[in-house]
Amino acid sequence: MIGHSPLSHQPKYPSLLHALTTHYDDLIDYVRRKFGGREFAQDVVHDLCVKLMERPILLEIQQPLAYLRKASANGALNRIRGENLRAEFIDVVEELPDYAHTESGEYLLALKQNVISLHAVIEGLPPRARQVFLLHRLYDFSQQEIAKELEISRTMVTQHYRRAIREIAEKWPPLQQYYESRWGSKL
């Protein structure tokens, strides 16, 4: 093929990042209409942009705008779940001192510190491991439900969950103590 170089090859479908930049405002409006709040929508679309830059999808997507809308909606749902989880966590932590009349101050302080340190460990997990762990432990999703929600295989769900449990066991003293008392060693 004379005069044809690999650099001149144009993909049949535009890249997702190109489609995102082209339809950026449309995606923000889509998320805003579906979930409310312009700032929320901007955060969701920005997160999607960062995700695509960090981990580009190498497959050609036939309908990039439809794909981006679905990814934005999923991102919005994940963000809402995370915000709800944080709000529930804060409520639980704030309520702890109210039980002072039934438990010792020392016990309550230790409990509060454990909850705070567990939260920090969970927040420090890799994003996908954190999602899988929270969906399973807090929302009681099955492996199959998690795989469907996150659009990954059940094998990947298992791997992410094991990684989350391993990191929590390594970094959270109460779980380390549990494993040591039960099996005589750390996980």
Describe the structure.
The chain has 187 residues and is mostly helical. The protein has two domains: 12-73, no CATH class; 100-187, Winged helix-like DNA-binding domain superfamily/Winged helix DNA-binding domain (Arc Repressor Mutant, subunit A), CATH 1.10.10.10. 72% of the residues lie in helices and 0% in strands. The chain has helices at residues 16-22, 24-35, 38-54, 64-95, 105-123, 127-137, 143-150, 154-171, 173-183. Helix 2 packs across helix 4 (64-95), helix 7 (143-150) packs across helix 8 and helix 8 (154-171) packs across helix 9. The longest helix has 32 residues, at 64-95. The protein is globular. The relative contact order is 0.07. Residues 1-11 have low confidence and may be disordered.
Which fold name corresponds to the CATH topology of the largest domain? Arc Repressor Mutant, subunit A
* Percentage of residues in helical conformation: over 70%
According to DSSP, the number of beta strands is: 0
Provide the number of structural domains.
2
Q: Give the CA-CA distance, first to last residue.
A: 59 Å
The SSE string, one letter per element, is HHHHHHHHH
CATH C-level label of the largest domain: Mainly Alpha
Which regions contain 5 or more consecutive residues with pLDDT less than 50?
1-11
